[in-house]
Amino acid sequence: MRNLASIFRIIALPAIAWGGVELLFETEPGQWAVLEYPKTLIFIGLIFLIAVAVEVSVAALRFTLLRSLSEEKQEKFLASEHKLGEQLKAKLEKLPELLTRSKPVEEEDEIELDHNYDGIRELDNKLPPWWLYSFYASIVFAFIYMARYHIFDGETQVEEFKAEVAQAEIDIARYKETAKDLVTVETVSLMAEPSDLEAGKQIFMNNCVACHKMDAGGGIGPNLTDEYWILGGGIKNVYRTLLEGGRPGKGMVSWKNDFEPSELQQVASYVLSLQGTMPAEPKEPEGEVWTEETTE
Ligand code: HEC
């Protein structure tokens, strides 16, 4: 019994410390704070060591104390310890009664009322204290609630909802900024950063010149520097062409398995940066003139 209680305390204390760490340190949902902040493990480990140390010292003290006593006093000491345990047990056993204050079955006739409805009789039990005090607490809560939300200007559910949605939109925008590969045909935008255009150029030189020529003047594939487009100009259409390829059998394949969306965005931007340049041997225009107003 003694040892069991000690072991329980040694486990419970670090467990409480752990719970505290999880509560106090903010993490993404589903993540453990102890894993994200490994230093907290040292803290929990310390609590564990202290708990062990305290339990061991108390046990050692008790042992030396017992040894120093005469045999008669030893027995007395043990008996008093035993008594303490018994008292604790008796208190625990009384707990349900304290919570409900109900009369045991044997004494029920003391609280039986006179009514007798076709053999159904009624007991006048005391209200269970747990129930009664919860009821009082709910009354207090109701007053606080009414004051906060109906007298003073507490946030309504609609306002709370709107605030959360606004915050979520900010979070999403921030996430999209970092997650570059989330670009789609609908959201793709023209890149202007020299580093992005340089990266796009590299991809173009390594993959596209065989058909479109070094200066994009056109070969097997069309001239990419003029304003005539078969599949549509502008960043969205060019991006879609790279993503899905050209018309079947023409030779322009889909590049979506070779490059990340952000890389395709770079090449598309590079290709469009060549608009109006003068290739050495431009291929004659194919398709139609494309301007931003032309849809698709
Ligand atoms: C195997 C040859 C070949 C390769 C390699 C190739 N293309 Fe093409 N490309 C073509 C052909 C052919 C077309 C015309 C498609 C059609 O008519 O549907 C085309 C069309 C295009 C268009 C649309 C032009 C328009 O007028 O609408 C773009 C943009 C383009 N290619 C960019 C690229 C880029 C960027 C690469 C490298 C990642 C590339 N191509 C690699 C052959 C190729």
TrEMBL record:
Classification via InterPro entries: CcoP_N, CcoP_N_sf, Cyt_c-like_dom, Cyt_c-like_dom_sf, Cytochrome_c_Oxidase_Subunit
Residues covered by the Cytochrome c domain: 195-275
Compositionally biased tracts (Acidic residues): 287-296
Keywords: Heme, Iron, Membrane, Metal-binding, Transmembrane, Transmembrane helix
Membrane-spanning parts: 41-65, 130-147
Superkingdom of origin: Bacteria
PROSITE patterns linked: CYTC (PS51007)
Pfam family, one: Cytochrome_CBB3
Region named Disordered: 277-296
Gene Ontology MF terms in the entry: electron transfer activity; heme binding; metal ion binding
Entries under Gene3D superfamilies matching the protein: 6.10.280.130, Cytochrome c-like domain
Name of this chain's protein: Cytochrome c oxidase cbb3-type subunit 3
Lineage of origin: Bacteria, Pseudomonadati, Bacteroidota, Flavobacteriia, Flavobacteriales
